[in-house]
């Protein structure tokens, strides 16, 4: 019987496993996918995420990111930029991040299983998890880090049954082109956004976010600045999709079961804060378990998650893309407030 079973070996699951091991607990990770895992992601590590990884014993490489710039199109194009007041973010291929976390987990002797969670039961002393490989894993605590479609949240009765009003989807590809900027770029198109991250000396990640069926190339072509930058640049990875989001949960703990990362709720990709927030949640979950007070996790989860959820909801909740881009353009007219909000998101 492990002290902790982590369901899902994505970045947040592996960070939680490493946190638990560093706190002296025995850990098992259940992740059905074999090898290094890729996922549609803008591949930004915000400045606040970098020291979190360093604390786990990981020194992430990557392209330095010094701020974020928003671009609006239409008849009156505009651009606003915020440079980070301190520290730098990193543009880092998702597969590189996953390989680094896996290597560190292996170094610490973390046990890995290959089953997919299918059932769970708990009593006052332990949780029993059942996987599709027929394994029965007993643990004192279980942390569900199994992403947007979390089986843990569903089985623990923590999924919000109400569908969101507006669902968004994403598609990501990489282009072989020399990065033209050292900031994260967010371009507003007619009904979708594109975010651009330099992730190598000749590689950029372009993620398109929009409604169901969002057209990837048509969105890029509808944004003149981006179309010009990518003209003739070969796409070197397949399109990878994600969604729908937002995803909500009704609470983050049920007895000995806790949720972290996207499994605990996710608003949108536009603010690039998923990993930083997920790493903070992973730490808070392990701290609460270490104290033997899982109920305290809910308060900590709210503390590390809510401000960003509110800002991100504000940025994506306002009507269509035109309204949303108008909101950013207006906010940028009050540079001190805009700067303070951007800083809050990145730390
Ligand atoms: C287009 C896009 C761009 C984004 N850009 C950024 C960005 O630039 N920066 C940033 O910080 N964040 C970004 N995000 C958010 C970020 O990708 C997520 O917040 C992050 O991946 C969450 O990690 P996770 O480990 O919680 O979930 P995941 O990465 O989804 O991992 C979940 C794992 O659980 C496993 N799993 C699923 N079901 C089960 C089961 N039943 N049993 C066991 N295992 C299971 C899966 O195989 C998977 O490996 C972006 C998201 C999208 C969609």
Describe it for me?
Helix 7 (274-290) runs antiparallel to helix 8. 49% of the residues are buried. By secondary structure, this protein is of the alpha/beta class. The model has no long low-confidence stretch (mean pLDDT 93). It contains ten helices and 18 strands. It has a domain at 2-62 and 91-163 and 246-319: FAD/NAD(P)-binding domain (3-Layer(bba) Sandwich), CATH 3.50.50.60. The structure holds flavin-adenine dinucleotide (FAD). Flavin-adenine dinucleotide is lined by residues 7-13, 30-33, 37, 39-44, 116-117, 145-147, 151, 170, 172, 207, 242, 261-263, 269, 272-276, 278.
Topology:
Layout lengths: L1 E6 L3 H12 L4 E4 L13 E2 L3 H7 L7 E3 L1 E6 L5 E6 L5 E3 L2 H14 L3 E3 L3 E6 L4 E5 L4 E9 L6 H5 L12 E8 L8 E5 L4 E8 L2 E8 L5 H6 L2 H7 L9 E6 L7 E2 L2 E3 L14 H17 L4 H23 L3 H11 L3 H12 L1
Parallel strand pairs: 1-2, 1-11, 2-8, 5-13, 11-18
Antiparallel strand pairs: 3-7, 4-7, 5-6, 9-10, 10-11, 12-15, 12-16, 13-14, 14-15, 17-18
This protein binds flavin-adenine dinucleotide.
Keywords:
347 residues, FAD/NAD(P)-binding domain, eight-stranded mixed sheet, 10 helices, binds flavin-adenine dinucleotide
């Amino acid at each position: 019987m492990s002290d902790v079973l982590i369901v899902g070996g994505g970045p947040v699951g592996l960070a939680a496993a490493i946190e638990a091991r560093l706190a002296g607990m025995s850990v098992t990770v259940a992740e059905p996918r074999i090898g290094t895992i890729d996922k549609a992601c803008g591949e930004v590590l915000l400045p606040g995420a970098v020291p979190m990884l360093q604390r786990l014993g990981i020194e992430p490489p990557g392209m330095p990111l010094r701020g974020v710039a928003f671009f609006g199109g239409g008849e009156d194009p505009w651009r606003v930029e915020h440079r980070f007041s301190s520290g730098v973010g990193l543009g880092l291929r998702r597969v590189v991040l996953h390989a680094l976390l896996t290597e560190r987990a292996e170094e610490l002797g973390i046990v890995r299983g290959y089953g997919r969670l299918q059932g769970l039961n708990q009593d006052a002393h332990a949780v029993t998890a059942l996987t599709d490989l027929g394994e029965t894993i007993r643990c004192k605590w279980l942390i569900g880090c199994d992403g947007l479609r979390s089986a843990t949240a569903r089985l623990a009765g923590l999924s919000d049954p109400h569908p969101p009003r507006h669902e968004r989807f994403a598609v990501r590809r990489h282009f072989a082109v020399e990065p033209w900027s050292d900031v994260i770029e967010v371009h507003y198109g007619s009904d979708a956004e594109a975010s651009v991250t330099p992730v190598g000396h000749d590689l950029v990640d372009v993620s398109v976010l929009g409604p169901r069926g969002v057209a990837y190339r048509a969105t890029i072509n509808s944004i003149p600045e981006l179309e010009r930058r990518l003209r003739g640049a070969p796409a070197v990875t397949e399109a990878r999709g994600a969604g729908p989001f937002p995803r909500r949960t009704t609470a983050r703990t049920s007895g000995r079961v806790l949720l972290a990362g996207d499994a605990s709720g996710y608003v949108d990709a536009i603010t690039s804060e998923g990993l930083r927030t997920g790493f903070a949640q992973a730490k808070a979950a392990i701290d609460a378990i270490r104290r033997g007070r899982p109920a305290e996790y809910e308060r900590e989860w709210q503390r590390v998650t809510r401000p960003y959820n509110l800002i991100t909801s504000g940025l994506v909740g306002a009507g269509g893309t035109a309204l949303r881009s108008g909101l950013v353009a207006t906010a940028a007219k009050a540079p001190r407030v805009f700067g303070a909000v951007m800083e809050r998101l990145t730390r």
